[in-house]
Write a structure and sequence with these properties.
Layout lengths: L5 E6 L3 H9 L2 H9 L5 H21 L5 E6 L12 E7 L1 H8 L6 E6 L17 H6 L5 E12 L4 E4 L2 E5 L6 E7 L6 E6 L2 E4 L7 H9 L13 E5 L14 E4 L4 E6 L4 E5 L6 E4 L4 E16 L5
Parallel strand pairs: 1-2, 1-3, 3-4, 4-16
Antiparallel strand pairs: 5-6, 5-16, 7-10, 7-14, 8-9, 8-13, 10-11, 11-12, 13-16, 14-15
Helix pairs in contact: 1-2
């Protein structure tokens, strides 16, 4: 007997909830914001819009389905099942937060605040949730490329947008950089770290580095296998070079980094709290991940 589908609604604590939790009451939060030139009314209205969207999506789940909710901070403790249909209600970044915990389950991104988000990953409105849920198993989906970092001690990290490798606090990182299959060329570097990103990441942090650099590299599409990498602020010295500072990784390509500092970290999608811890002599390889994010674009019969 097969289980009914389970709709897993992913959301995050709102800024209003965080303020009230920190200051104790609505009035104290309002006083705190007013002292800094902000109005709690605008924050509270955004909170109401987010909760209305979440309630509308929850009400759209078919009555014969199971339903679960998970807050962003609990994602690493939540067990997703193969039959789950994941509905992310919030911002684009929330889709990236959940991506690494999935294994092919369809993801529906619902924009909780239309007009505030770019809508790169949260492409739908709460009003469309019923049709999207009913047709999710047969829906057209984009298979978005992901990036992974694997250390020589088996530590592994997966991300949807990008992986950053560098020193804690973004101070000077020292390491040796090479590309697999590049004839053994290795360069010692001192820099602000290395960024390796996907086509999805090319709409965010990766794009800002690419634009600032005036790079001639072509930004990949989110579904392409290729990745881009950039070394941030490489420092030339008698002991460190700047010849390997940017490039493209094909589907099987790997960027290799051997640590020459007391401590470096690798974290994905801006989440520094979930990082690989690397120390002297360790090597980490970064490249395309076999795992992909299945992001629902639309259901059959709907434009």
């Amino acid at each position: 007997m097969s289980l009914a589908p389970r709709a897993v609604l992913v959301h995050r604590t709102t800024e209003y909830e965080e303020l009230v939790a920190r200051h104790g009451t609505h009035g104290q939060a309002a006083f705190f914001l007013s002292s800094r030139g902000r109005d709690l009314g605008e924050v509270a209205e955004r909170h109401r819009r987010a909760h209305r969207a979440l309630a509308e999506v929850a009400a759209a789940v078919p009555p014969t389905w199971r339903q679960a909710r998970v807050e962003r901070s609990d994602l690493d403790r939540f067990l997703f099942a193969p039959e789950d249909i994941v509905v992310v209600v919030g911002q684009d970044g929330l889709v990236a937060n959940v991506a690494k915990y999935l294994a092919g389950q369809p993801v529906i991104g619902v924009d909780a605040e239309p007009g505030r988000n770019p809508g790169v990953l949260v492409r739908h409105r709460a009003a469309d949730a019923a049709a999207l849920l009913r047709g999710a198993s047969a829906a057209r989906a984009d298979e978005l490329t992901m990036v992974e970092a694997v250390a020589d001690d088996t530590q592994r990290l997966v991300a949807l947008n990008e992986i950053y490798l560098g020193a804690v606090g973004h101070q000077t990182a020292r390491y040796r950089l090479s590309l697999e299959g590049d004839g053994g060329v290795v360069e010692a570097q001192a820099s602000s770290g290395v960024l390796v990103g996907t086509g999805t990441g090319a709409t965010g942090w990766l794009r800002s580095v690419w634009q600032e650099r005036g790079s001639a590299l072509r930004l990949p599409h989110p579904t392409e296998d290729s990745l881009l990498w950039f070394v941030r602020e490489a420092w030339p010295s008698p002991a460190t070079g700047t010849s390997l500072v940017a490039g493209e990784l094909a589907a099987t390509g790997r960027l290799c980094l051997t640590v020459e500092s007391e401590r470096l970290v690798a974290f994905g999608d801006g989440v520094e709290g979930d990082a690989l811890q690397l120390t002297w002599g360790q090597t980490v390889r970064v490249g395309r991940c076999e795992q992909r994010l299945r992001l629902v674009t639309h259901v059959p019969g709907r434009r």
